[in-house]
């Protein structure tokens, strides 16, 4: 597998289990790129939905992807604190076209006080039936929901107190 280079601008492609494109982030600057971890930063980047609609992100964000974990985390820097949006997803792959992953519908939104809510369980149930998620995938995904909640509660990994701020400072050096 290719590895994105620090300072490189990449796209992020999110797919659904059936292989259809879900969402594309036009530009993210790689802050760290290894075989296992990609950390990126973006701000006011264009996002294209599967139906062709576009929108622009409203605030700076630090994105955390892991090649062996079934989730990714976006830390959004807002005036009232850092909000996290966690996608339950396949591990990422990078193929020089883009960083790619499968979005499995379940999301966890984390607030600046580290309280959180699990989102889109109904969407998960619908897509699980429609796209025939295998039982083994279902078990992996729910195990990763539990692991993510553990990281949130213990402020570990991308939820560590200085994680987002540290990488945001590095993002600013690349942005110029």
Average pLDDT reading: 97
CATH superfamily (homologous) name = FomD-like
Q: Report the CATH C-level class.
A: Mainly Beta
**Widest sheet, order of strands:** 1-2-3-6-7-8-10
In percent, how much strand structure appears in the residues?
A: 35-45%
**Poorly predicted runs:** none
Whole-number count of domains: 1
Q: What's the total count of β strands?
A: 11
Named CATH architecture: Beta Barrel
What string gives the helices and strands in order?
EEEEEEEEEEEHHH
Instruction: Tell me the helix content.
Output: 10-25%
> Gyration radius, to the nearest Å?
15 Å
Number of helices: 3
Shape: globular
What structural category characterises the helix and strand content?
Answer: alpha+beta
| Major beta sheet summary | 7 strands, mixed, barrel
Distance between the termini: 29 Å
CATH fold topology: FomD barrel-like fold
Write structural notes for this entry.
- With 176 residues, the chain is α+β, with helices and mostly antiparallel strands.
- It is 24% helix and 42% strand.
- The protein has one domain: FomD barrel-like fold, CATH 2.40.380.
- The chain has 3 helices and 11 strands, in the order E-E-E-E-E-E-E-E-E-E-E-H-H-H.
- A 7-stranded mixed beta barrel has the order 1-2-3-6-7-8-10.
- The chain starts with 8 loop residues before the first strand and ends with a helix.
- 32% of the residues are buried.
- The mean pLDDT is 97.
């Amino acid at each position: 597998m290719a590895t994105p280079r620090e300072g490189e601008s990449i796209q992020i492609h999110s797919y659904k289990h059936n292989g259809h494109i879900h969402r594309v982030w036009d530009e993210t600057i790689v802050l760290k790129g290894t075989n296992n971890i990609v950390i990126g930063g973006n701000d006011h980047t264009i996002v294209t939905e599967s139906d062709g609609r576009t929108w622009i992100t409203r605030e700076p964000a630090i994105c955390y992807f892991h090649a062996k974990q079934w989730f990714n985390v976006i830390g959004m820097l807002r005036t009232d604190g850092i909000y996290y949006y966690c996608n339950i997803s396949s591990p990422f792959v990078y193929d020089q076209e883009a960083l790619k992953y499968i979005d499995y519908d379940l999301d966890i939104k984390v607030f600046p006080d580290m309280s959180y809510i699990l989102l889109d369980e109904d969407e998960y149930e619908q897509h699980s039936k429609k796209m025939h998620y295998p039982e083994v995938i279902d078990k992996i995904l729910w195990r990763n929901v539990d692991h993510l909640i553990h990281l949130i509660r213990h402020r570990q990994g991308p939820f560590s107190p200085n994680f987002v701020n540290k990488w945001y400072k590095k993002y600013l050096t690349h942005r110029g």
